[in-house]
Request: fold
Amino acid sequence: MNILECQHISFVRNQQTILQDVSFEIQAGDCIGVMGPSGSGKSSLFRLLNLLMSPTQGKILYYEKNIRDYIPTELRRKVGYVLQKPYLFGTTVQENLLYPYQLLGQKPDLGEIKSYLSQVQLPENTLEKKNTALSGGEQQRIALIRSLLIKPSILLLDEVTAALDEENTLLLEKLITDEQNRQSFTLLFITHNPKQAQRLAHKILYLEGGRIGSYGMSTDFFSTKGESHE
Reply:
């Protein structure tokens, strides 16, 4: 069974067609790199998958059920979304990392939180810091940990390493890979970095002009397209 399916999705905003007749299927456990030129509709697609917007035409199915039939908060627990520009709410890091347990009705597991902090090389006292005291890279790491703590079925990552140096990029990539293997969630990530796509993705969904240019195994994509394609 497909965990996610887009059926002839189109999206028009301000009389401009952003996505047109986009159809694809995703199986549980897939790791898909979403690539394409700027303005090709990648981020808009993610917003549609997370119910932040609705398609103008077509349907999006999550486990064969139209996502419009889900309560948005319920769907977003299942389909996590980490933005390129991290968003932290409240005042402190601790508020953000305790929130997933509140959402799931569980007792906070400080050991689990501290383990995640360690994996991204943040000290335990980061919990006490104010959000505004963190660098952009630190905020991104906290936003990613928060999403992982919710334990989604699908995780959408929108260029989460774009503003990071190589060391921190590889750090987050390792965490993402390790957690996908451990939690068995389905991963879709937007990247303009062909080397990152080669390192992480099993499949590549390539958008161009709001349409699917190609969709298939990453090895096939890079053997035919080469590394020059973003």
Observations:
- The beta strands are 2-13, 16-27, 31-35, 57-62, 65-66, 79-82, 154-158, 186-190, 203-208, 211-217.
- The first strand starts at residue 2 and ends at 13.
- The chain has a mean pLDDT of 94.
